[in-house]
């Protein structure tokens, strides 16, 4: 928690921003704190950016189809490579985006990122070669979604909230699932009835619609509107823009990589990405279609995952404010791995229909989908303090790299073996490994009131020795 700083010598060298006494314009208000409006805009923005994430799994079969059927005849491995590159660049852009938020402000970075997502989506309507798919999806959409990824949620939460951080993290994390919930059924219906191109246009327009909300309503810091962060009585001056965003991101990576908790968090989160975005989001629909299930039915099941994902993630944020994040992660990964072990059997027994056991899997998996994010972010904040948003960006990069690898390998495995069964079983075993790794992470500091204490913790210090 920041403390009121003593007066500084105006003739002295500039120093890092410190907390100061609140200006006269800061008064107690009965209206909701402005932080909640910023969080609401961030929620809507993430939904717009996440619209494209509903597409890759829906478009594998249409793009794989022969030209006579409206496709290109591309292999599933090629399409999976483009989808994987989207996820990989999304992850690698995250830590640099967190630093760019500090340099140029949240509004500018988000507006540019949303425009990049829309451009990549809309340009793919006119593509004729697979390299264009890689460029439009992998590079433009990947870099855009990376700038709007969970590192963005971490930046908003860290700047605007002192209290309710776990809850807000859960809500903003759930925004990605909400985008999936809104756009999956819609896009699947469009693909089945009107082809894949109108679906791509829909997701591009969704990203563009979010731009004016960001520009008109988002603010970079509580000091911009003369407020202290929510849950604090101490006004904090807005930090000066920090040049060298890329150097800072790399410096934070260098420092964090010297600590044990970073590698454990990165490893568990890589498995998280492999077992969610890379696996279920990309390959569940074509795998279910292999067993005779209609694309719209399989996409609707993914949308149901989105419904329960929202519930599970918000609940996880609430639990993270109260319980040991390491134990929560162990439970989440263990249950996820167990459910994946049963999925091949459920798909084989479905006969192309949605049976009650499959519905149970979808509900169970949805509750666990990104419930790992609030405790992972809390552990980053616990161990790395003011650098936690950038550290989380690098941890998120490992998440996306794991997802990208499985998005590609899943399609390649299907091309070589004719089934996804080996991918499901291997991912389940990896989740069991992640549960074990989570328990090995050292615990950081908590205050007497149970709140996480930011700044370098004893565990961080000891891990550098």
UniProtKB/TrEMBL annotation:
<keyword id="KW-0812">Transmembrane</keyword>
<feature type="transmembrane region" description="Helical">
    <location>
        <begin position="109"/>
        <end position="129"/>
    </location>
</feature>
<feature type="transmembrane region" description="Helical">
    <location>
        <begin position="35"/>
        <end position="59"/>
    </location>
</feature>
<dbReference type="InterPro" id="IPR050327">
    <property type="entry name" value="Proton-linked_MCT"/>
</dbReference>
<feature type="domain" description="Major facilitator superfamily (MFS) profile">
    <location>
        <begin position="34"/>
        <end position="446"/>
    </location>
</feature>
<protein>
    <submittedName>
        <fullName>MFS transporter</fullName>
    </submittedName>
</protein>
<feature type="transmembrane region" description="Helical">
    <location>
        <begin position="79"/>
        <end position="100"/>
    </location>
</feature>
<dbReference type="InterPro" id="IPR011701">
    <property type="entry name" value="MFS"/>
</dbReference>
<feature type="transmembrane region" description="Helical">
    <location>
        <begin position="261"/>
        <end position="280"/>
    </location>
</feature>
<feature type="transmembrane region" description="Helical">
    <location>
        <begin position="422"/>
        <end position="441"/>
    </location>
</feature>
<dbReference type="Pfam" id="PF07690">
    <property type="entry name" value="MFS_1"/>
</dbReference>
<feature type="transmembrane region" description="Helical">
    <location>
        <begin position="135"/>
        <end position="155"/>
    </location>
</feature>
<dbReference type="InterPro" id="IPR036259">
    <property type="entry name" value="MFS_trans_sf"/>
</dbReference>
<keyword id="KW-0472">Membrane</keyword>
<keyword id="KW-1133">Transmembrane helix</keyword>
<feature type="transmembrane region" description="Helical">
    <location>
        <begin position="358"/>
        <end position="379"/>
    </location>
</feature>
<feature type="transmembrane region" description="Helical">
    <location>
        <begin position="167"/>
        <end position="191"/>
    </location>
</feature>
<feature type="transmembrane region" description="Helical">
    <location>
        <begin position="331"/>
        <end position="352"/>
    </location>
</feature>
<feature type="transmembrane region" description="Helical">
    <location>
        <begin position="197"/>
        <end position="218"/>
    </location>
</feature>
<feature type="transmembrane region" description="Helical">
    <location>
        <begin position="292"/>
        <end position="319"/>
    </location>
</feature>
<feature type="transmembrane region" description="Helical">
    <location>
        <begin position="391"/>
        <end position="410"/>
    </location>
</feature>
<dbReference type="InterPro" id="IPR020846">
    <property type="entry name" value="MFS_dom"/>
</dbReference>
């Amino acid at each position: 928690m920041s403390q009121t700083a003593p007066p500084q010598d105006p003739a002295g060298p500039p120093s890092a921003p410190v907390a100061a006494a609140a200006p006269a314009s800061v008064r107690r208000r009965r209206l909701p704190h402005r932080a909640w409006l910023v969080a609401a805009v961030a929620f809507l923005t993430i939904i717009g950016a996440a619209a494209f994430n509903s597409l890759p799994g829906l478009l594998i079969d249409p793009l794989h189809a022969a030209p006579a059927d409206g496709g290109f005849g591309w292999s599933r491995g090629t399409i999976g490579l483009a989808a994987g590159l989207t996820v990989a660049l999304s992850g690698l852009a995250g830590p640099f985006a967190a630093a760019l938020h500090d340099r140029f402000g949240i509004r500018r970075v988000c507006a540019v990122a949303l425009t990049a997502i829309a451009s990549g989506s809309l340009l793919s309507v006119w593509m004729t070669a697979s390299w264009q798919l890689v460029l439009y999806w992998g590079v433009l959409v990947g870099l855009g979604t990376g700038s709007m990824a969970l590192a963005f949620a971490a930046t908003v939460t860290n700047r605007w909230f002192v209290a309710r951080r776990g809850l807000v993290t859960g809500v903003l994390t759930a925004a990605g699932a909400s985008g999936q919930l809104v756009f999956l059924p819609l896009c699947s219906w469009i693909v089945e009835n009107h082809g894949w191109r109108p679906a791509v246009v829909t997701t591009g327009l969704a990203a563009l619609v979010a731009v004016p909300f960001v520009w008109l309503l988002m603010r970079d810091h509580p000091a911009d509107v003369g407020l202290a962060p929510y849950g604090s009585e101490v006004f904090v001056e807005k930090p000066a823009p920090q040049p060298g965003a890329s150097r800072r991101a790399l410096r934070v990576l260098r420092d964090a990589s010297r600590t044990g908790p970073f590698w454990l968090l990165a490893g568990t989160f890589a498995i998280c990405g492999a077992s969610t975005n890379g696996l279920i989001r990309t390959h569940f629909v074509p795998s279910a279609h292999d067993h005779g299930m209609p694309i719209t039915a399989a996409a609707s099941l993914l949308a149901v995952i989105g419904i329960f994902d929202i519930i599970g993630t918000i609940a996880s944020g609430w639990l993270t404010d109260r319980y040991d994040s390491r134990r929560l992660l162990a439970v989440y990964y263990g249950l996820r791995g167990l459910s994946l072990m049963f999925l091949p059997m459920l798909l084989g027994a479905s006969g192309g229909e949605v049976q009650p056991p499959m519905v149970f899997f979808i509900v169970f998996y949805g509750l666990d989908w990104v419930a790992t994010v609030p405790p992972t972010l809390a552990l980053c904040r616990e161990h790395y303090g003011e650098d936690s948003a950038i550290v989380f960006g690098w941890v998120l990069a490992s998440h996306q790299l794991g997802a990208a690898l499985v998005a590609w390998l899943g399609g390649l495995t299907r091309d070589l073996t004719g089934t996804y069964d080996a991918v499901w079983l291997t991912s389940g075993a990896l989740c069991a490994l992640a549960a074990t790794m989570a328990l090995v992470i050292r615990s950081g500091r908590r205050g007497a009131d149970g709140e996480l204490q930011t700044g370098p913790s004893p565990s961080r210090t000891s891990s550098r020795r």
